[in-house]
Amino acid sequence: MSNDRGADDAADREERSENAGEAPSPASRAARRERRAGSTRPAGTGKSGPATAAGRRSTGSGDDRGAAGSPWSRLVRYLREVVAELRKVIWPTRKQLVNYTAVVLVFLVVMVTFVALLDMGFGRVIFYVFGE
């Protein structure tokens, strides 16, 4: 039984070494989205290299200096990062937006009706108990 397992492990290692040149299949939604967008950098890597188990690796470059630099350079950097984040957003289509808005409005009407009926019911119970 242990010999079979050893043979399977060897076959797995051989298969992995054959596929080493191929890009791994993307594991997350963001990675798949990046691949579809035709990005040249591998998914999950930033300016500082691939993520490690302990977090991102620091390259020691000036990117990690925090509050250092002039206020204008920090503002420009902030705006660039905002634009970069907004490019990652998956914006809804017009049809989706109309559909989601309708769902929210219908839910709102249902909940307002429910709360109003509860309020009237509790009001009648309180009036009946304490009368007048």
Please provide a written account of the structure.
The protein is mainly alpha-helical and 132 residues long. Among the domains are: 1-40, no CATH class; 92-132. Helices cover 61% and strands 6% of the residues. It contains 4 helices and 3 strands. The protein has helices at residues 2-18, 29-36, 71-88, 94-130; strands at residues 45-46, 49-52, 55-56. It has a 3-stranded antiparallel β-sheet with strand order 1-2-3, with no helix packed on it. β2 and β3 form a beta hairpin. The protein is elongated, with a radius of gyration of 29 Å. The model has no long low-confidence stretch (mean pLDDT 75).
The total beta strand count reads: 3
Overall outline: elongated
Give the termini distance in whole angstroms: 86 Å
Strand order of the largest sheet: 1-2-3
Write down the overall mean pLDDT.
Answer: 75
Class from helix and strand fractions: mainly alpha
Helicity range of the residues? 55-70%
Secondary-structure element order, N to C: HHEEEHH
Main β-sheet, in a few words?
3 strands, antiparallel
CA radius of gyration: 29 Å
Low-pLDDT ranges: none
Counted by DSSP, the helix tally is 4
- Please indicate the percent range of residues in DSSP E strands (runs of 2 or more): 5-15%
